[in-house]
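Q: Got a minute? One more chain.
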Amino acid sequence: MRSKRSWLGAIALAGALLSGQALASEQSPPCEVGSYQLDNGDMLDIGPGAGGQLRWRTTDGRTGALAPQGDGTWTSTLGWTKRPDGHRVSFTDCGRGGIRFDRTPGQRVLLEQIDTRFQGSGVTLIGRLTLPPGDAPVPLVVLVHGSERDSALERYSLQREFASAGIGVFAYDKRGTGASGGRYTQDYLTLAVDAIHAMREARRLAGARAGRVGYQGGSQGGWVAPLAARIAPVDFVIVSFGLAVSPLGEDREAIAFDMQRGGFGPEATAGAMEIADATARVIESGFTEGYEQLEAVKARYRDEPWYPAVRGNFTWYLLGNDEATVRKDAPQLVYGIPAHYDPMPVLETLDVPQLWVLGGQDRDAPPDETLRRLAALQRDGKPIVTAVYPDADHGMYEFETGPDGERVSTRQPEGYFRLMADFIRGGPLQPEYGKAELSSHP
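A: Always. Here it is, folded:
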């Protein structure tokens, strides 16, 4: 599964950090990494992958993992399935002399990259401005993190993909990740102030080339980016697979969606909500109280057929670990999280044009209540566009479901990248972007 949890972050990654394993480094990326324009006009991004692999992406959402072969070529597997998809890639002079994707040759796009150190809110942050070729003004987007702990500079393919589409991009390692200083936190105000500093650094570096400027925030960035825009206005905000409810509200919605997807009825949902109440008490106490209540509801319901389906966004962690482990590790895993943060006062007073792109099958951040709230803001005249991709999970990934019920990501929806790029440019949107269900203010 390829997914980023929207407020807990990836527990496995966090656990690796706590045990001293490095999650990001300042190593140079593989020399093949870059953007390429194929002779048929398609854009192809090559990024780092896992375990010595590379990952290819096209702007229509297709992607695959590339494994090196003994003859100098790379063979591809579909999405994250590990199943061969028939694609083969070769590089000339490590990409400097070009690329061949199947039978189609192409050339590397010579993007301009400027690395920088800048001052965030009391810490030094590491960032990079990536600009398309030329000297004409371009729109500029600042990428705002989700809750992940890995390095954006190493992992965010959008910094190259947007730049290859004529958009300037500023990416940065958020505090406590990658090469940036400070302690990792999920405090939204601190992260929003850091994002404002990043936006100002992006404008400074772009100089005369900076046109309209705004944010794109994924997952947890959907709480951070609007807050940053409310403090220091920008020209646009894009929220991808984010929420207009609190983190605790997210957990409850995710559990309700678990019950719905499992085909369980109201009685099961009521029991699952009792579990959500118990886990919320533990979280609200800073992981110091509420364990007796949690153990009581676990004992009451653990033999119910619906109990294994209770996942939520944080509840699954509390159900799967003993009290000693939770007391020891959880406070660091969600350091600074404002569990009751209500984003609505920010959104109700935010007049910046916003695009919210949500997944109809998002298990971590179910969109229904968020869409209801955004629709009310649209009726009040707020400049909000919503787009729902009905088959997408968290991270805006389509998926296959295995016999064990687990999802494996295959690609991003067709039209997703194009929709974001058009919104950043500021022109009128097209009637269709793949399967997206579009809605805007009257």
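A: The domain at 111-246+341-440 is CATH 3.40.50.1820 (Rossmann fold).
Q: Perfect, thanks.
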